[in-house]
Design goal:
The chain has nine helices and 21 strands. By secondary structure, the chain is α+β, with helices and mostly antiparallel strands. The strands form four sheets. Strands 4, 11, 12, 13, 14, 15, 16, 17, 18, 19, 20 and 21 form a twelve-stranded antiparallel beta sheet that branches. It has a five-stranded mixed beta sheet with strand order 3-6-5-7-10, with helices on both faces. Strands 1-2 form a two-stranded antiparallel ribbon. Strand 8 (about 130) and strand 9 (about 130-135) form a beta hairpin. Helix 2 (about 65-80) runs parallel beside helix 6, helix 3 (about 95-105) packs across helix 4 (about 115-125) and helix 7 (about 205-215) packs across helix 8 (about 225-235). The radius of gyration is 21 Å and the shape is globular. InterPro entries: ATP-NAD_kinase_N, Diacylglycerol/lipid_kinase, Diacylglycerol_kinase_cat_dom, Lipid_Phosphate_FormReg, NAD/diacylglycerol_kinase_sf, YegS/DAGK_C. Pfam families: DAGK_cat, YegS_C. This is Diacylglycerol kinase, catalytic domain. GO terms for molecular function: ATP binding; kinase activity. Keywords: ATP-binding, Kinase, Nucleotide-binding, Transferase.
């Protein structure tokens, strides 16, 4: 069926109850002083909440959709009597963004990304439009659509920050319990005036270039990040950058190898690059690696995975609410990515949006 412009498949548990059109549960806004709320499905209304599951059938080389099909019977039995379960398979890049926006506008109670960091990244961007949060057409301002995640991807770096495993049954239990918490989101702007959102880690230069190449080798699992890093080092040169932190004066950073802006902690298939990243802090952790050589990564790779690299020479860390980054030389080929997605090149500005999304956790 077509769900307000988005093609979805309604699971058998919903069809069997004769639901011709999704119905929506009015969710109460939590108090600003308490970011965590508990809302068991159906607790606030006799009407059943609508949950939209966004699935990338090509995720993890097709493994995501296979796991999803296996999961559906359990999902129906666990949630189908309390919720309207709407399944939507993406058809290509950015489709998850469109699905999410339509679901929010129609008052869905939650949009749940099924897959890895790439699918989650698109869903996050669907929560915003033209620099503002997307809102429901028909619901009052107290209603907020929540974000959910069933991690089934190659890297699942965001799930690591929360201590979650790639266990879909655990994820369904989280959804069933209804515990929610407000999380911060990062927003990136550039010379074009467009906005791009991220929930995990954004990064610049070598790490971003490595991520760009790694996307070509995802069939190799987490090994793709190592292959991407090796390819990224070919022809790599450290660059002098200038940064502006929290609207203060410009600062110079010489011979930058990588600059990482963490809302969460992990990237690159398990590297704990911003070990002090905190989704509830209202700040980014910015980690800058300077004057690294190719052999530094080989010798110190274990520290990157353990999150102990902040003690290494030429590695600095700081807490910021915003940071602008430009090339001193005016180079137009310094890579930028966020949540593992290539975004183009410098210059860019990164800002934190505190408690921007309510997440099922």
């Amino acid at each position: 069926m077509v769900y307000h412009g988005v093609t979805v498949t309604i699971t058998a548990s919903v069809v069997g109850l004769g639901m011709a059109k999704p119905s929506f549960l009015r969710a109460e806004q939590s108090m600003a002083s308490d970011r965590t709320t508990y809302r068991p499905p159906g607790a606030a209304s006799t009407r059943r909440p609508d949950l939209v599951f966004v699935v990338n059938p090509l995720g993890a080389n097709g493994r995501t959709v296979k796991e999803w099909k296996k999961l559906l019977p359990y999902l129906r039995s666990r949630l189908g009597t309390d919720c309207n379960i709407c399944e939507s398979l993406t058809s290509g890049p950015s489709h998850a963004i469109d699905i999410t926006r339509e679901a929010i506008r129609e008052g869905a109670d939650a949009v749940i990304a099924v897959g890895g960091d790439g699918t989650l990244h698109e869903v996050i961007n669907g929560f915003f439009w033209a620099g503002k949060p997307v809102s429901s057409h028909d619901r009052d301002s107290s209603h907020r659509t929540a974000l959910g995640l069933i991690p089934l991807g190659t890297g699942s770096d965001f799930a690591r920050t929360l201590g979650w495993k790639n266990d879909p049954h655990e994820a369904i239990e989280r959804i069933a319990k209804g515990l929610r918490s407000y999380v911060d989101v990062g927003v990136i702007s550039g010379e074009s005036g467009d906005y791009h959102y991220f929930i995990n880690v954004a990064d610049i230069h070598l790490s971003a270039k490595a991520g760009y190449y790694a996307a070509r080798y995802k069939r190799f699992g987490n090994l793709c990040y190592v292959i991407g890093a090796l390819q990224g080092f070919i022809g790599h040169h450290n660059e002098d950058l200038k940064i502006k932190v929290d609207e203060a004066e410009w600062e110079s950073c010489s011979q930058v190898t990588a600059l990482c802006i963490g809302n969460a902690k992990y990237f690159g298939g398990g590297m704990k690059i911003t070990p002090n990243g905190d989704l509830h802090s209202g700040n980014f952790e910015v980690v800058i690696l300077q004057d690294f050589k190719w052999y530094d990564f080989i010798l110190k790779l274990h520290k990157l995975y353990e999150g102990t690299h902040l003690t290494v020479n030429n590695v600095t860390s700081r807490r910021v609410q915003s940071i602008e980054v430009e090339s001193v030389s005016g180079s137009s080929n310094i890579f930028v990515q966020s949540d593992g997605e290539h975004l183009g090149f410098l210059p860019r500005k990164f800002c934190i949006l505190p408690a921007a999304i309510e997440m099922i956790c």
